[in-house]
Each structure stands twice: as C-alpha cells, then as structure tokens.
Amino acid sequence: MSENKTLCKLKNTNLLVIVRKIRDSTKWASKGEDGVLLPDTKESITELISNMRKYLIKDISISVEAEKTTLFQIQSTCHPFTKSLIRSLRELKEQLQEEFSNSEDISETLNKLPIKPQDELFKRVFGCGQQCPFCKVPCEAGGKEHEQHHAAVHRPQGLGCYMNVDTEKLVETLCTTEVHSESEFSNTDTKEEWHPYKKYTDYYPDWHIPPDPTIEASDYWKFVLVQYNDRFAQEYEAKPADVPEAWRRITKEQALKGLKDAFNIKGTMNNPKKCIHETRL
Ligand SMILES: [Zn+2]
Ligand SMILES: [Zn+2]
Hints:
Blueprint: H1 6-29, H2 44-55, H3 64-73, H4 78-102, H5 106-112, H6 117-126, H7 175-178, E1 184-185, E2 195-196, H8 219-236, H9 245-248, H10 252-264, H11 272-280
Helix pairs in contact: 1-2, 1-4, 8-10
The protein binds zinc ion (2 copies).
Protein name: Interferon-induced very large GTPase 1
Organism: Nibea albiflora
C-alpha cells in the first residue's frame, strides 16, 4: 500500500463514489413525486431532506432527530439551499482529496477501519483450520464453508507423524499415493485397527484426497523431509524415513520453485489432482 500512492488512490475512488451518491440523492430529492421541482420555499426543504434520507437509507442512517435539528437551523429557501449544498459538497471533496494526498499514514487508516483487511486476508489463507488426517497438510478450500476439505499437494506422511509399525521408520509416501494403493493405516481414530487407505472416507468422509499413482511429492516437501529427516524422527521418537536417492539431489531453488508452482495455480483448485499434474509440466 505504501507504493505508488495506492492508499490515496483507493481513498479517492471511494470518495468519488460517495460524493456521486450524495449529489444524485440531492438531484433526486429536489423533485416532488410528480417529477416537478419542489417550490422555492423554506417549507419544501423539509421534503427535500426527507427525500434525501429515503434515497440514502441503504448507505447512511440519518436519525429523525438529526433531520429535525438540521431543519431548525436552515433559514434559506429550497433552491438556493440545494445549490449551496452541492457547492459545499464539491468543496468538501476537494478538501478531502488534498488531505489524502498529503497524509499517507497507512497504519492509522487501518486502525480506523471497522473490518481489518489483514484479518480478512488471514481468514482466507488460514481457511477452515482442518488438517489432512495423515500428513497434516492444512485444508486449502477457501473460507470456512465447504463440504469437503482438500489440498493441492499432500506431504510425505512422516511429516504428520506417521511411521511404519515394524521398522519404526517415518513414512515417506504421500496420501495421494496411499489412497491408490493396497496399504492400510491404523491410528487412534480406527482404535488401532487396520483399515485400507482406499476406504479412508469411512473415517474421514469430509476429506477429498484424490488418488494419484505417481510417487512424487512436490519438490518442496521432498526437500523438507530430506533436510530435516533426523529432526522429525527425533521429535516424533521414530527412525528417519528411507527417502529415495533422487530426492537428495533436489536443490533449495528447485524446492522453492515447486512451492511457487503449486500455489500460483490456486484458481483451478476444483480439481486438485489436475493441479498437481499441471505443476509438473
Ligand atoms: Zn495428506
Ligand atoms: Zn476445509
């Protein structure tokens, strides 16, 4: 917002919308129900103000009390009053425009807003807060209201504390691969009973994990597992995962590129499986 006077431009755009609305309301209000200009008397100002109140009712609420006080102060007749009103509106607009271009205090403006943009952005990014039951990747479906949780790229399950019961090694495979395989899982949700991955929806009906026969995770998560294999193992009190040799050759640059590729395509999230393939092209 601090670059190119973005905030100033935004304020100006909103100001023009508001000014136009008030000006339109004045024009609309200066005519009676028959479409004829209100007579140039002091009394018709009452009708003018009441009409304006009706026109602007969705945008601003003017209390009856405020309306009365205003009327009490007005000494002019209707037509010069309307002209003065439009003139002071123009002056006010110019005054505010000058104020906007002189001061660029972004935090002050943000503090005054009833809805905080940073909170709205956070909610959008944070989503519903649910995590994949296997790899713990956060749900990426926008906002809170969706029928199924999904994520474009699942992580090696070991990062979500899944280990092989026999070898105690962290599992390097992806959820998208497991749900395609004959493997089984067991955890506290299944009361430690074995259950086929293919039927994961028996336990997690609100998750959509598209089956993907290819064994590749995004480069980013492969890189993370290779780099921090021992530390994850230590943290989860398991043995490090057997990572494929090819994963060890992934550079930091490739890892970051993988992350960028995966999230630049958020617009086509309706088909997460397709997204992953597109990322690899
Ligand atoms: Zn997962
Ligand atoms: Zn969700």
